[in-house]
Design brief:
- By secondary structure, this protein is mainly alpha-helical.
- It has one domain.
- 78% of the residues lie in helices and 0% in strands.
- Helix 3 packs antiparallel against helix 6, helix 3 runs antiparallel to helix 8 and helix 6 packs antiparallel against helix 11.
- The longest helix has 35 residues.
Length: 255
Amino acid sequence: MRNISILLKVELLEAVRNIKLIWLTLFFTILGVTQPLIDKYMDVILENVGGVEGIMIDPNASDPKANEVLLATFSGQFNQIGLIVLIISFMGMIANEKNSGVQGFIFTRPVSSLQYISSKLLGNWLISMVCMAIGSFISYFYTVYLFGSYAIVDFLGYLICYSVWIFFIVSLAVLFSTMIKSSLFIGVATILLSMVLLLLGNLNDTLSLFLPSGVLTLAEDLLLQTGNANFLLLIAPIVYLITNMYIAKLFIQRV
């Protein structure tokens, strides 16, 4: 554990020095307030960019609920544009060190391959979730201000489930980083597989049980308070995460 904590501190310090914590937080904050603004002022936006001619807007339509706006923020902003930028931010976490020789130097110390990849997984997940959490809570308070109250405890439940999905995504990037030398290809492979899993997860509820993206269905049920929350959906992403780390460990040991 001592080696992991030391490597984890190095990872976090590197994020501070590269101002990753700052720009990622600003990015997710902007994403977080964009959706509520669009949902609230869509008619005003349309009028100012060319009018609403040819666009049907129901004048009697009620404003969406706060939890519906929050879901749109995560599914439409965080889980698309946000996910791509997030993957780009950590796609070279292992490949760059391997190519520069830093990884070889680390392994001259009493550090195991599992400790090394665990520090990468935990470090990049913590960085990702700190930045996303700040942006998420700003989005939450702004959404509540515009659309009405929504229990913060329920929102926290959604965010915790969503963090499991991000944990899996980081483990996927760790795995590809041990297999592929190019950071660009690591990023492309991680993004493509993530998008495929998201699409497959929306096809069938039964299929979601066997996919890591199924945890997003659980998160959505908790946020919308449908009463259909199936906590078995937490199993698949955890199993895949452990599998990714085990395979990554084997690939590093082969190098």
